[in-house]
Amino acid sequence: MDKTQGIGAILLMMVLVAYYIFTAPTEAEIAKQQFLQDSINKAKLQESEVLTTPIPREQVIAPTDSIAVAKLNTQYGPFGSAMTGEEQIVSLENDDLEIHFSSIGGKITKAVLKKHKKILEDEDHVQSEMPLVLMEDKKNRFEYLIPTSSYGNISTAKLNFMPQLQGKTLTMTAALDNGGQIVQKYTLAEEGYNVDHVLKLDGLESLIDPSNKKLRFTWYNYLDRLELNTTFEQYYSTIYYKEKDEGSDYCNCRSDDLEEIDDNQIEWVSNVNQFFNTSIIPKNKKYENARFETVVLEKDALDLKLLKTELDIPLDLVASESIESSLYIGPNEFDRLRTYSNELEQIIPFGKSIFGSINRWVIRPAFNWLSKYIGSKGIVIIVLIFIIKMILYPLMYKMLHSQAKMGLLKPDLAHLKEKYKDDSQKIQMETMKIYKEYGVSPLGGCMPMILQMPIWYALFRFFPASITFRQEPFLWAADLSSYDVIARLPFEIPAFGAHISLFTILWAVSTIIYSFYNMRHMDMSANPAMKYIQYFMPITFLFFFNTYASGLTCYMFFSNLFNIGQTVLTKKFVFNDDRLRAELDAHKSKPKKKGGFQAKLEEAMAQQQKLAKQKGNLPKKKKKR
Fold this sequence. Notes:
Radius of gyration: 33 Å
CATH topology of the largest domain: Beta-galactosidase, Chain A, domain 5
CATH architecture of the largest domain: Distorted Sandwich
Strand order of the largest sheet: 7-8-9-10-19-16-15-12-13
Strand content: 15-25%
Number of strands: 21
Shape: elongated
Structural class: alpha+beta
Distance between the termini: 42 Å
Helix content: 40-55%
Number of helices: 16
CATH class of the largest domain: Mainly Beta
Oligomer: single chain
Mean pLDDT: 81
Low-confidence stretches: 1-5, 43-59
């Protein structure tokens, strides 16, 4: 990039900033847009609440109300009597999980994860701790629709299941007037977060519509806000699912989305928060005709998102039919999810490309291994940086070696500017000749950065997605999975936030210092714009990293410190100017053999210079009077 290109790049950035400032909507326009969006969201929410509002207790008919019972029997036949009675709450628990069930619908009303906590923050930023609970929203809907010939679709949400508790197994039975029964059986594992579920239909084969031999499973789940950084939590919360003989997939995380799978079976479906999930895995029957929908709720809403799942389960119309499945209600822990052997661990958004593979099979195991011996996750990050820097030091040495030799050639390059004045093309061509003559490559320092790029990109996904860092403090950062806060602002800056992240500031400052120290001996006369771009970049990225996971900015800051340390020590104690000059002179005295690319490049530059010179010597046209 020559001088004019550098100036053009800076002007382009200035135009983009000016465009952003001058095209920003006024307060009146923002208020109008907000009013319209609120109206749309209110209509959506009203529609969803009609579908998801649970049956109020007063609608559960008491058996003594003979008129109401008779009406139920007329409308729902043998199912009518199962729609009466008082609600009962029963619970199962182990050392990790406590689950509460309601007899109305035989469904889970809340699941308490005992080893995890939710942090709340009031308007004064005072934090308090409370239990972390999933599936507790009263608007949630979890039901099976039973297709009958005479009574339409009978929802299990309307039935009252009589509970019977034995150890860690809860059996809930809805008895029908024809002698049949619907049984839901939940068995909690002795430890961990797995719950086995069996839905058993006894004596219903004569009631089911033979033209529609499928149960319709409906699951609407309002995700609660569990993290302080709700922006990232919303980005990483959605529905994941896996089709038969296919990899896992998911609905859009940042906007409303709808996915319909009509031509394949579903092996599992998972409602995923940033660090927790509720998953259903069928055992003896695969799901069909799937419909997955995500609805992004307002920023100030109590809930994070609404996730809708609708599936068909085939029926065989036999006298006793069981539908078996497993439920996982717990943290997004890679090793625990991988034990299911069905790619359920793919719900952790490490990425699907090579960067995801690096996260799963390189970075994650390295962090886990180091964490066995080091208690602080922040110290683990620093130790990992040290290991990576030591592995890459041979390449770093080559980079510094190349930079040191280029620094010694700076007087020679400065002489070119005096000799050729403002002929930038000639300066560049002669500069390349000098580099070739002395065996110096301007690209010699790129390899360490190129090799680290996959690790950098992988870490962008690793820190916000890995539960390893959730609520793990280090230095002034209270949570390495979220941004650190050293100061609060009385207002919010677009794309920056209403806080200041110290790790981000330290990264930007150390990047500028490292760039200055590294480039102070470099000749920028042929391209002075690069001198300013290297400082402009970290300032620009302040807006991106200020709200990012502090684990990443911590990694970047200490990585810069290691880079500065390696550079200073190597240049001070390893390199010697006299020895480097001897290397340059030795290479200069060797016979040179032009490579194909080098020759073509010099020929192209010479041809370009010749054309420019010819153009400058053309006679000027006389102006007509």
